[in-house]
Amino acid sequence: MVSHTVVIRNPSGLHARPLSRFMKLVKTFRSEVRLVTPKGEVGCRSIVGLLGAAIKQGTAVEVRVEGPDEAEALIRIVEFLDGLVE
Amino acid sequence: MQRILLKKPASKGIAIGEAYLYRPGRIAADRGLIRPEAVTAELGRFMEALASARRRIVELSARSDIFEAHVDIADDPEILESVTDKITMELKNAELALEETADAAAARLAAAGDEYLSERAADVRDVCSRVMRKLKGLPSSGMPGIDRPVVLVAGSLAPSDTAGLDPGLVLGIVTAEGGDTSHVAIMARGLGIPAVVGVPGITEIVPDGADIILDAVEGAVIIWPDPAASELYRARAGEFSRRKSELAEAGGLPAETADGRRVKLCANVGSIRDVEAALPYGIDGVGLFRSEFLFMESRAFPTEEEQFAAYRAAAQLVPGPLVVRTLDAGADKNLPYYLGEEEDNPALGWRAIRMCLDMPEVFKAQIRAILRASAYGEVRVLFPMVISAEELDRALGLLADCKAELAARGDGFDPGIPAGVMIETPAAVFCADELARRASFFSIGTNDLAQYVLAVDRGNRRVAPSYDPLHPAVLRAVARVIEAGHAAGIPVAMCGELAANEKAIPVLLGMGLDEFSMTASLVPDARHVIRGMRYAEAIGLASRVLGEGTVTGVRGILD
Prior knowledge:
The complex is a heterodimer of chains A (about 90) and B (about 550).
Chain A: E1 2-7, H1 16-27, E2 32-37, E3 40-43, H2 47-52, E4 60-66, H3 70-83
Antiparallel strand pairs in A: 1-4, 2-3, 2-4
Chain B: E1 2-5, E2 13-22, H1 39-61, H2 66-74, H3 77-88, H4 94-110, H5 115-135, E3 150-154, H6 159-163, E4 170-175, H7 183-191, E5 195-196, H8 202-205, E6 211-216, E7 220-223, H9 227-249, E8 264-269, H10 272-278, E9 285-290, H11 292-296, H12 304-317, E10 322-325, H13 352-358, H14 360-373, E11 379-383, H15 389-409, E12 419-423, H16 426-430, H17 432-436, E13 441-444, H18 446-454, H19 472-487, E14 492-494, H20 504-511, E15 515-518, H21 523-531, H22 535-547, H23 551-558
Parallel strand pairs in B: 2-3, 3-4, 4-5, 8-9, 8-15, 9-10, 10-11, 11-12, 12-13, 13-14, 14-15
Antiparallel strand pairs in B: 1-7, 2-6, 6-7
Helix pairs in contact in B: 1-2, 1-5, 2-5, 3-4, 4-5, 12-14, 14-15, 18-19, 20-22
């Protein structure tokens, strides 16, 4: 398992539109991806779960990736979250 | 008579008619347990209802972004897992399993106590009730068929309610819930229905069947109006719709200046529905058919046949030329079924013609579909994001290959189909003369062009104030492109937002722009500006503006 913490910079946080893009990115990897947020740990395949985590601007999120392509997945996911500014 | 002041209207207008009170009841689940041997059948019943509801949501998502999030909800594995568990482990029937799952999911979102998430909880409920209706064999919306003109008064209206509304019978809308950006407000504006949303308790105040006046100009509702009020509002409503239709009626008139310079006014569209909506504005054609929407709403690359059907339908509807832009995906427009690599700099990345030239089979299927549609109307093809003559040559080479393939198959097409280039990169501006020798027309895409010329991302809050399409650099680029096009004898169109900017239109007209393409609803105002100008004056104005070297100078002349 590899992990890295990012702070969400997007002014509107992780709402439905960026989450849609985020989920599509996660689906391109074979590894299991989970986010640890102040509200608890969520998987990344469920829009309801991710929305419910209510990740706002300034929230620190730990990305945990486990699986065959975990290294690449972690880099790409962290890049996505880090660069997300709408 | 009772007059209630509401609040700022979400969609302006005046509606006079009978109040129709809509209180959607919750659909009661037939709460029931099933026998263990019925589990497989029950799962099948649920999956079928889900798939059928999902198909309808995907259809609707072509019309409105609202439903895109609904697709994600329908695809949510946690919802599916929870329903499946309840059926297989707890032996609950599909209705009960779904109801419990939807309640739990909606409660989870609503618990965050955040307005945005509460709206999403409403989305979850809407998707689940759609599936529930399929399970129970009910029609897809709870909205009963309205058979006479009414003013709709409701607690809340879900997307699935409004999608089924006949706009011809809904004179006005008042809801207790929702804000200015809620689904119902957006739809009402889109359909031109007067609406005031977010008036708590309105369903308790207005009696069902009462005569009411909805004044969605001032923001008031009048219940059981007296004759004087009725008369006053009839006059106001008449005046409001007269003013609105005056602009639309000018649709029959050509976009011609007082001294006889005639230009074309066209619409930018993304779907057949947009084409239909554009026709009443008296457009000269479609200057930009964004084919990417066809690709984005699909589950896979749409086939040649699927695309042909869409382009043909559009070609048959449009009175003049139909310009189909080939796939402009990448950057901010991702195809759900085809993910490129996440790029550091997508605006400068693998997108539009670059992507298409790398996938010749996908590109050729689209070109063949466009060619085949050209047998049914005046169809033109437009290549986006071109930066060099070489790229254009490759695209034109593929176009020639496709013509040969269709000829061999015996399919009809227009052998002289005009092929144009979208001018939206600085490279295309500087090589416009070279491109003009190869292309049949230019179309300037000012949104991307301004972004690339100014190196400003207008989606970035910090730098967005520097994004100004009236910057002298952008205006000079536009003038240069028009000049290069005309020197080579080809027409030059513009399909970016600048083409609808009332301050910019006289300048563009004076520069010699031949065609202005924009969102259809902006066409009447543009026509009004053009018909009120003299071409000679516009030419003078353009040369004064082009002589200005600063944004302030340009603004000083135009503001």
